[in-house]
Design goal:
single chain, mainly alpha, about 5% strand, binds zinc ion
Length: about 160
């Protein structure tokens, strides 16, 4: 037989046990002894805390222990499940949307880089295809080109 865990023993002592835990404590002398030991230790602690509180001036007001209401425990699991059911698709949609935005931004950045590269290439192409360097271009209008030889138009 598998004995109860410390948590299950604590559940029995605090009254938050399942029917299986209750049945095991009733049937198993070893676990019953462990549960009684824990319960008596807690009882001693409670009594000493009360005694300490009563001897204080002014006396400390003890707040009665509150157990969770049965309906709250019963609704907690379906409420958490419902919250998960709602939040998982929302999160998934958010994640997909974010991914799509990141892909769009990446595509836009790549397109911009390609346009920049094309502009640079076009600039280089223009520079390379020039017959005369740009600073000398004003002089070209002063010189007429004939096949093989040139004459300065300004001189004749
Ligand atoms: Zn046991």
């Amino acid at each position: 037989m598998k004995h109860l865990t410390e948590t299950e023993i604590a559940d029995w002592v605090t009254g938050l046990h399942t029917p299986a835990i209750l049945r095991h404590v009733e049937d198993c002398p070893e676990c019953r002894e462990r549960a009684r030991t824990l319960a008596s230790a807690l009882q001693l602690f409670r009594e000493s805390a009360r005694e300490w509180a009563d001897n204080r001036t002014p006396p400390v007001r003890m707040i009665p222990a509150r157990r969770p209401k049965p309906w709250a425990v019963r609704w907690a699991v379906p409420a958490v499940a419902l919250a998960l059911l709602v939040s998982v698709p929302v999160y998934d949609s958010y994640r997909r949307d974010r991914q799509a935005r990141a892909e769009t931004a990446l595509a836009a950045r790549q397109a911009a880089e390609e346009a920049e590269d094309a502009a640079l290439l076009s600039q280089v192409d223009t520079g390379v295809s020039r017959a005369v360097p740009a600073p000398l271009e004003p002089l070209v209008s002063l010189v007429s080109w004939n096949s093989g030889s040139w004459n300065a138009s300004a001189g004749q």
